[in-house]
Description:
Two copies of one chain form a homodimer.
Chain A: H1 6-23, H2 30-37, H3 41-53, E1 57-59, E2 77-79, E3 84-91, E4 95-102, E5 107-114, H4 122-138, E6 145-153, E7 156-158, E8 163-167, E9 172-175, H5 177-185, E10 190-194, H6 195-204, E11 217-222, E12 226-232, E13 235-236, H7 268-271, H8 273-279, H9 288-296, H10 300-324, E14 328-333, H11 334-337, H12 339-353, E15 363-366, H13 373-388
Helix pairs in contact in A: 1-3, 2-3, 4-5, 6-13, 8-10, 9-10, 10-12
Chain A binds a DNA duplex (30 and 30 nucleotides) through helix 1 and helix 3.
Amino acid sequence: xxxxxxxxxxxxxxxLVARTVLAADSPPSRADxxxxxxxxxxxxxxxxxxxxxxxxxxxxxxxxxxxxxxxxPATPLRASTGRFAALGxxxxxxxxxxxxxxxxxxxxxxxxxxxxxxxxxxxxTLRRLRTMAGRVLESAPLGCHVVGAGLALPGIVDVxxxxxxxxxxxxxxxxxxxxxxxxxxxxxxxxxxxxxxLAAHAYAHPAPGHDSQPxxxxxxxxxxxxxxxxxxxxxxxxxxHGWAGEIGHVCVDPDGPPCRCGSTGCLEQYAGRLxxxxxxxxxxxxxxxxxxxxxxxxxxxxxxxxxxxxxxLGVALAGVVNVLDIPTVVLGGHLAQVCDLLTPEVEEILxxxxxxxxxxxxxxxxxxxxxxxxATGAALLALxxxxxxxxxxxxx
Amino acid sequence: xxxxxxxxxxxxxxxLVARTVLAADSPPSRADxxxxxxxxxxxxxxxxxxxxxxxxxxxxxxxxxxxxxxxxPATPLRASTGRFAALGxxxxxxxxxxxxxxxxxxxxxxxxxxxxxxxxxxxxTLRRLRTMAGRVLESAPLGCHVVGAGLALPGIVDVxxxxxxxxxxxxxxxxxxxxxxxxxxxxxxxxxxxxxxLAAHAYAHPAPGHDSQPxxxxxxxxxxxxxxxxxxxxxxxxxxHGWAGEIGHVCVDPDGPPCRCGSTGCLEQYAGRLxxxxxxxxxxxxxxxxxxxxxxxxxxxxxxxxxxxxxxLGVALAGVVNVLDIPTVVLGGHLAQVCDLLTPEVEEILxxxxxxxxxxxxxxxxxxxxxxxxATGAALLALxxxxxxxxxxxxx
DNA sequence: GGGATTAGTTTTGTCACGCAACTTACGTCG
DNA sequence: CGACGTAAGTTGCGTGACAAAACTAATCCC
Lengths: 396, 396
C-alpha cells in the first residue's frame, strides 16, 4: 500500500536494469538492455552508470574477437564478480555447509563437513558452523561486501523471529541460531529458512536475477524424511506463517503406518529415506544409490520398497497437482538418486489421478546433486534483495 | 518486465487512491486518503478530482449532522453508485444466474432461474442465459457503463481461449460460450472462470477494492461434486493453466470407490452431495438440509454419511493445509448447509494431521448462503480490473 | 579516406509529485 | 456578532526522472 514517488520510479528501473543484465545469457550492452526493457538508451545509460559506480555491475573488457559488425563496438555488461556476496549456511541431518556466493552466482569460497547430527546439541553444532563460517569469510576476496546471510534448516522455522521451532530429524526444538552465530556475522542480519524452500529457490534461480525453467514446480527434498516446497512463478510459496510445503506429511492412506508427526499414512512413511531402506530390509546407513542398484539387480525387497515409494509419491503428488495445477515435480536429495526407478510409475499414476492430465501430462524431473542446495539458496535469497532494490546499496 | 515512466506513477497512484476510498469502511475525505496513503493532500486532491470527473468516485452530500468538529468540514468520498458496473453470469448444475454489480458492490439488477441442467444442451441453455442477461441489462440505470462480463462455470476452463474444456456435472465438453452470448454483450469481452474460483474471489472481496477477513483460505464449493479454490493474499491461485483448486479429486484413500474422473477414493466420493445422499440412503433430490435434519434426529445412516464425509474432508484438507500453510477453510454450497455437523470432526482431524497444528489450529468457517456466488465473483473480478487501473477509463 | 552503421552521451522538454503558502468553511468564545 | 482557531482543500513553485532528438564516438566496408 506504499505510495509511489519519483524516487520509486528510479528504484524500480534500477532494479529492472540490474535484473535484465543478470538474466541475460551473454553480457548485454546498454543498447541491448534498452531494447529489452523498452527504456530509452539515455535512461539506461544513466542507470547503468549508477550501477557500475555502485559496484553492482561491471563493464567487460571485450578483448576477444568482436562480432565483426559495423558500428561502434558495444560495451558488454555483467554482474560484478566478487564485489558483493552473501553467506549461505546449512545445518542438515548429515552435514554442515557454508558457502559464499557472489552476484554472478559463483561460489567464492565454501566449506562442507559430513557428520551425523541427528540428536546433536544445538549449541555445539552451531559453534562448529560458526567456525566454518569464520574460515569462509576470511577467504573472501579483498573489497568484497557481504550483504546478507541465510541459514537453511531441516524443520519448521519462524522467519520473523529468527527461531527454529522444531526440527524432528535433528531432535532440535525451539532454537534461535542467531545468537550463537552473531559473533562471526558482525551485525549482519541472519535469515532462517526451511531447507527445502531454499533448495527450491536455488533450483528456480541458479544465480541472482537469473530464472531457470521451469518457474512453477513442486520440489521434494529427500533427506531422512521428506521436505517440500511449492514454487509459483519463481517464488517459493511460504504460506500464512512460512510453513508451507510439508508434502512429506500429506496423507497417502489414512489406515497407513503411524508417523512421528502424530498422524498416520504420511508420504514420508513410504518414500522417506529411512522408510525405503527399512522396507527393503537394509540398514539405515545404506546409501540410496545402493538401494537403487539392488532394485536394478532384481532384489525383490528393494523393488518392493521402490514400488511402494513410487505409489505413495504418485498419490500424494497427484493431490498436490490437482490443487495447485503445477504439473512439474522436481526430486532432490535421496529421491534424486533413485529418481529413474521412481519416475515411470510416478508419472503413470499422476497421468491417471490428475484431473487435468488429459490436457497436460505431469512430468517428474531430477534436481542437481549438490549436497547442500539449501546453503546456496540461502545465499541467493539474500542476494535477491540486493537485486530487487539496488538503490539500497547506492547513494540511497 | 514493463518499464516505469511518469505515467505509470500516475496510474499506480490513481489506483492506490481508488482502492483506499473503496476499502474504507466509511466515506473518507481527501485528507483521510492522504493520511492513509502518505501522499500529500495536494496530490490526493488532484487524483481524486480526476477520479470524480471520470465517474469512478463521487462526493457524498454530507447532509446529516456532521461531527461538529472545528475546521472546514470534510467532503466524504465513495465509489460512484450505478455509474460503472459489470455483468456476472453463472451456469450451475441446478440454476442459471445473471447479476449486474456496481463499484460499490451493490447488485443493480439480477435474475435467477432454478433448473436441472445436468445433461442439458449447451446451445439452448446458453440461449436462455442470453435472454436473462438481456433483461438484466435493460434494467440497468441510465448512464451506467457496463465495463466487463464474466461467466462462472462448474468445470475446467481455458481462460485465454474462452473455452470450457469439460464440465462433467453438466455433461458439457469443449464449449465456447462467448459465441452464443456475444449478441447480448455487444462487443464486451466475456471472461470465463471456474465457479469455485469466482465464488472464492467474492468471499475474499465482497466489493471491488474491499478486502474481507481472512485473505488466505481454502474454499470448498459443494454442488453435485466438490469444487475448490485456494486464495493466497486475496488472490485466487489459478495455477499454471488456470486449473488449480480441484480439491474434490484429492485422494482420500487409494483403495476407495472409483470416481468418474477415472481415479479412486477422491474426496468427492465421500463428501460430494450425491455421495453423501447415497451413503445416507436418500434420494438424489433430497436437500442437504434434510440430510442434516435427519442426522440431528438420530438417523444412523445419515450420521454415518456425515461422519464419513467429515473424515474424508479432514484427511484431504489436512494435506492441503500441510502443503500450503493456509489454516482457514471456507465451506460453501451444500457443504455450508451441513457445515455445523461437519466442523467439529473436520477441525479435530485437521488439528491432528496438520504438522503446524501445534502452533496454529486450523479453522473451518461457513460461506454466505448466496445461491450464485460465482456470478457475483465474475462481476467483481471484472470490476477489479477497473480498480486496478482506473486510468484505463479516464483520459487514457 | 569517406560513408554507413551502431553504441553511447548530451541537451532540452514534459510531467507527476512534494512542499509550503494560501483560501475556504466551519466551530468557539469573548 | 465578529474575531480567532482549526482543519480541509487549492494553488504555485521547485525538483527529479524519463522521453525525444540531436550529437559524438568507434568501428566496418568499400
